[in-house]
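Lab notebook page, bench 4
Experiment: in silico fold of construct C2
Operator: M.H.
Input chain length: 116 residues
Purpose: comparison with the prior construct
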Amino acid sequence: QVQLVESGGGLVEAGGSLRLSCVASGRSFSSLGMNWFRQAPGKEREFVANIARSGAITYLEDSVKGRFTISRDNAKNTVYLQMNSLKLEDTAVYYCNTRHGGINYWGQGTQVTVSS
């Protein structure tokens, strides 16, 4: 099993920045590709970013490219989502995710609210 715990959400004004963290436990972190998803009120959960096990390859959803960065520290079992130039439409619950052994694992989520 894998346990994921997110932190770092909060209330921020449009144009501001936040850094989300997700700490993983239960499996060798360096063996896991990691993802961030988000779910806005009344909408389906959507993919935001992915980072490969080594951190050498990342992928960002188009709407966040140039504003968000995903990174990881395998020594700290932690994946990060740096969010800059936040927009009202970035308001959502952000979830950390990984898949191992055919099972999707999710954190509890952290709320990000962007105000005007």
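Observations: The chain is about 0% helix and 55% strand. The CA atoms of residues 17 and 84 lie 4 Å apart.
Next step: discuss at group meeting.
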